[in-house]
Amino acid sequence: MSPWISMLIPAIVASLGGLLALYWSPSHQMRSLIQHFAAGVVLAALAVEVLPEIGREHAPTWVIIGAFTFGGIMMYIMKLWSIRLEEKTEHLGDNAFNYGLIAATFIDVSVDGFIIGAGFAAGGNTGFILALGLSVELLFLGLSLVSNTIKGWRVVLMSVALAGIVLTCTLLGNYLLSGASTSVISAILAFGVAALLYLVTDELLVEAHTIEEKPSSTLWLFAGFLVFWSIQLLSGE
To answer: Where are the domains of the chain?
Structure first.
């Protein structure tokens, strides 16, 4: 598949997520299962593609450690910022527009897009595999945006905007990093590792654990990991 077509996959899937939210409103239990599945997919992307690719680049150790540390600090700052915005929203009532959630979502999607672009710049199957893996997260992103103030066609428009952001950042990342040194690409991917870990531990799983879980939730986590790993293994044959 052409890299340019592969870059369109996350944007198309993000738009479909908005349409899905228009016609389907899953229960809290189902959302929890979906979030476990998405968390498994992202963890698999880290374990079977991003971290091995960083190793293949053979960048200096201090570059990787420094980039990951910087990424962790930035995610922590973003967490504090989104909490403050959400606290302000709570004071305005249930019908207030949740700027914290929307801002955090757009930042997450921007980082995801840039990571995918870095994967394509690194060469091989990295970009394609990342595009497929993160598309699972984007597919159900529209469902997480549904609230008292964002519903119906507003969710679709928001999802289309997110699709535009992820595509723009993917193209930008690929353009800026094409021909870049191994140290630069490794630094971006190491930063991406921190961002994706934040996505799994502080967003997907935290949100999924807000309700009483069923034992089957664990199976959905493993299923997400296995599906992504299987795709990666089959693409290498």
So the answer is: 3-232
